[in-house]
Ferredoxin (Marine Group III euryarchaeote CG-Epi1), 112 residues
Amino acid sequence: MKDPKGRKVVGFDKHVFVCENKRDSGHPRECCYRKSKDDIKTLFKKELEYYAKENIRINSAGCLDFCEQGPTIVIYPEGVWYSVMNPEKDIPEIVKEHLIDGNVVKRCLIEL
Ligand code: FES
């Protein structure tokens, strides 16, 4: 990313936070770690490699407080929250539609 004078700017165009919070089994709110069948963060990174986007960052996060709708992610600067219930289908669509093309994937939105 460059500023108007062409200088490199520290930061990212988009930042994806993936909840990887882990609670003991039987906790009433469960947790995204136990609900995830896959390593969601790694799947996002692999999908992004295809598009060679270095200005999009994928990070682990603690509990994002939408545990019941998880596995949960949030994308900034938009502040769009998604539930990744079906990673094989959802992640390629969120990467292509949201991160690359700038369109919200309505079917994966968390009810706020
Ligand atoms: S454990 Fe993931 S949102 Fe709370």
Q: What stands out?
A: Strands lie at 14-19, 56-61, 72-76, 80-83. The chain has one domain: 14-108. The chain is about 25% helix and 20% strand.
